[in-house]
Amino acid sequence: TTVMGSNPSSIKDCDDCPVETVSWEDTQEFIRRLNQGVEGGGFRLPTEAEWEYAARAGTTTAFAFGDCLSADQANYDGNHPLPGCPQGRYRQKTTAVKSFPPNAWGLYDMHGNVWEWCEDWYGDYPEGPVSDPKGPSSGSYRVVRGGRWNYGALFCRSAFRYRFTPGRRYDNLGFRLARIR
Question: Who contacts 109 (Cβ-Cβ below 8 Å, separation ≥6)?
Fold first, then answer.
């Protein structure tokens, strides 16, 4: 509310929950205003490659915590774990940031809670190995990462990617900022 004057989130009784129900376009206006109001600016959405690198925190497993994701490690529909992994709680809404353990790099909620908009347009991955790949220069959809509170563990995997049109708003769609100094 400090930057935009209001909070669009559907969850009104949680001051520490992530902002959701924001479009990619909404995030760009927020970032524009934030960069004007904060000395040094430099805020932006992470690229898809940056997001996955941060989510993995040096791991090669499905999640930063291993190949199973517990409902004690992230907010997702615990009724739908990956095959061979235990079921868990389904909270049916977003939870406060830092309700679950951080990954090895100290980043919270990289798995579950809300999808997070990325800077990139959605497109096919490049052929062969690449370092810090860039997304296409245009498209119809923007990338989201991280999974969400009302979907199963499959959608929370570090490598799972999805897309929405830039104007789309959902109660499970938010964002995370990157800062370049």
Answer: 18, 74, 75, 97, 98, 99, 100, 146
The list of the chain residues with pLDDT below 70 reads none
118 phi, psi to nearest 5 deg? -115, 165
Cβ-count burial of 162 within 10 angstroms (0-12 exposed, 13-18 middle, 19+ buried)?
A: middle
What does the pLDDT read at residue 65? 97
Evaluate the CA torsion angle 145, 16, 94, 1 in order and state its sign.
negative
* 3-state SS class at 21: coil
Report the C-alpha gap between 143 and 151 in whole angstroms: 17
Sign of CA dihedral 8, 11, 14, 17: negative
pTM of the complete model beyond 0.90: yes
Q: Token digits for 59?
A: 């791991």
User: What's the distance, CA 93 to chain centroid?
Assistant: 15
Token readout for 156 is 């929370």
Model confidence pLDDT, tens digit, residues 114-147: 999 999 999 998 888 888 888 899 999 999 999 9
**Beta partners for residue 52, in sequence order:** none
